């Protein structure tokens, strides 16, 4: 397998965790989102992923994109260990937490969105940072509301093994720290993040441990 | 089943389509996103969905939120007719198209984001509209790149039956029209949207056909 990745990309980080949790070896192909005006926007990469977004995973003749679709694919094609529980209700809970991050926080703070803010809209660096922090803090509070005091979240987001939800949560908490967001209002999120980061699969997937880290 | 819905909510519209495609009867409970300063933000509704987002689906003792998690749940709990193809590669393709809409377009143009733009950032109505159109037009171009000339998309987004991808695409095209976005660059998207809207399940789910339509 070949993973087109950027060390700081939150979506690539999710897939790296999933691949590691499943003990799937992969070749990392770095795609720099800043250098050369963004290598992800060049024709070379657009032949891999026409949307020009990172990550993309190539598995034999299959060309996959969208991090959550990739992780669901991995879970179906390489079922062990599972990243979703067996029961539909529990699966819905795990997916909802993953989507709380993937739909409610991350897209609003994506690089291209921040660029539009400071470029087209002439927003200041300070306002941009306040925007970033606002969506992370509000979004993680929604995750906290799902996990706090919920016996299902006794160890990880759901149960005693990491799931798709944890694959999404840890990269988001990483970004939250990077941009100095408040985390004191989401103690369960912080506790789960710490629990995840004791596992080698999460450690190996961290931005600072990537071959293209700066 | 009880669906907490708002006629114009794109995410609620997705779930309405899915429920109709599966012939599942439901009681629509309207939650007005503007009236009373947003009924979704009141304690009453937060007891249903602490994140204060629409839609939420209550199925017996289960309380579900996040539209894509709800639709995946429906597909697992009520498998016929399926909204995802059986093969993992095809499922990944359908999910990727759904996420192109649900992660790359919709969150950036959500009501709360537009409010932050005009409120906190003091962006003009004209700039807000340009922002809206930009993300829809760029985002739908990414969908077009997946479906144009792809034999898998001969009728719907994937194959001869509507899937999760169509449940997401049609509400987004509805919004695109509502806000006067360009669509001439996405002819396959327009063709698939028209195909979907010949089906009663899509017609009955449309905003103008909801009990709370204005």
UniProtKB/TrEMBL annotation, chains A, B:
Organism taxonomic ancestry: Bacteria, Pseudomonadati, Pseudomonadota, Betaproteobacteria, Rhodocyclales
EC class: isomerase
Name of protein: Maleylacetoacetate isomerase
GO molecular function term, any single one: glutathione transferase activity
Enzyme Commission identifier(s): 5.2.1.2
GO cellular component annotations of the record: cytoplasm
Naturally occurring in which organism (per UniProt): Azospira restricta
All copies of domain GST C-terminal, residue ranges: 87-214
Regions crossing the membrane: none
């Amino acid at each position: 397998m070949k993973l087109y990745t950027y060390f700081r990309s939150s979506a690539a980080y999710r897939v790296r965790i999933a691949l590691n949790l499943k003990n799937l070896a992969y070749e990392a192909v770095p795609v720099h989102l800043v250098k050369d005006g963004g290598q992800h926007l060049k024709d070379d990469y657009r032949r891999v992923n026409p949307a020009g977004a990172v990550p993309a995973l190539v598995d034999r003749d299959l060309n996959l994109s969208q991090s959550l679709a990739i992780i669901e694919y991995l879970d179906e094609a390489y079922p062990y260990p599972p990243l979703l529980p067996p029961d539909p209700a529990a699966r819905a809970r795990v997916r909802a937490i993953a989507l709380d991050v993937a739909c409610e926080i991350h897209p609003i703070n994506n690089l291209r969105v921040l660029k539009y803010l400071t470029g087209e809209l002439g927003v200041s660096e300070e306002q941009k940072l306040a925007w970033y922090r606002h969506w992370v803090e509000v979004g993680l509070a929604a995750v906290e509301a799902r996990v706090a005091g919920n016996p299902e979240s006794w160890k990880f987001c759901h149960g005693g093994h990491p799931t798709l939800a944890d694959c999404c949560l840890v990269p988001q908490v990483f970004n939250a720290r990077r941009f100095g967001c408040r985390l004191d209002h989401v103690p369960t999120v912080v506790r789960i993040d710490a629990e995840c980061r004791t596992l080698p699969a999460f450690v190996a997937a961290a931005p600072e441990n990537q071959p293209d880290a700066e």
